[in-house]
Amino acid sequence: NALVKPREDYVDVFFRHLEQCAIKWTPEQFYAPYTSLVQASGTGKSRLLRELAVEKDVLVVYICLRDSITRGYPNRSIIADVITKKDASETYYLTFLLALFGVCSKFLDQQLRENAEKTCGCVFDILISDKNDETFELQKCFWNEVMEQMNLQEVSTDIKGKIANRYKNLMVTLKKLSNPSSFKMLLAFDEAGILIDNNTSENKGNFYYLRKALQAIPRGSFMALFTDTLSKVSDFSPAKRHDSSSRVSHEGQILYKPFYLLDVFDCRMQQPVNITISSSINQIRNMGRPIWADIKEEDIIRYAMEKILCDRKKVMYMYQEKKILIKTVTEALAILGPRLYLEIS
């Protein structure tokens, strides 16, 4: 399991950050109720979201937008094609939010009856599950119903008012959670760099219209989160002069500060150790990013080959033909050495 549990205090710090963002949300001051989390791979971003759901009982609606041809965990979510649709508009995403809140209300109410103690943790595990998990059918039902509701929804000039009413109804259910905070719900878009990649020459695309749609959500209990590995913080929270929205660049609205520190390096080490030429490979794997200590040896080798060739499809073909360039984990970690150290984008 590559989802390494972060140190306990980071869950609290992350929760307080989101809570304060939600409390401060007003359309007069902020552009939209969202923030970002950008950090290197293998540092526990996805696990942090799960701990938020499990420990703090926050409804985390998890959506992974990972490219469909790439390997990695978590897998691409069923709803990803809907979110990354290239001709999407603000109205399109407003329709998505309207459908999502309606389905969430019904789904959460059902989960509260079946899993009263760990409700949000169960919901998160359902939404992050893959096709080999028992709960995957529940995820399919959830997102299929969202898509059905989107198709049934008629375009309305008062769609923002409908979203406010739909979210008000959802809040009735959210208040049944054990979480005493006013912050109840996080809409998390993981591997969200693809939303930036789909921008037009005018920097208007999925991310531009999605965050405009988020403006319709009432204040106090909701935040959206965009997370990624490769994107820079400035992609999601650009400097005012570079923002594509005139409301930010000229009219004075501000963006929330990103959450960018996950200090989990060397967390697998039991005590400080001096690495020498005689150190075992298992000892070395426990240093740096926690992911190296948790994934299988053959996966480390495959990952190293992908980095050398910059071509996942070619590596897949080479495995099928049994043409493996790297034979040992030692060789793989030597190639991946620079990736064992901290990256802050």
TrEMBL record:
<protein>
    <submittedName>
        <fullName>12683_t:CDS:1</fullName>
    </submittedName>
</protein>
<dbReference type="InterPro" id="IPR027417">
    <property type="entry name" value="P-loop_NTPase"/>
</dbReference>
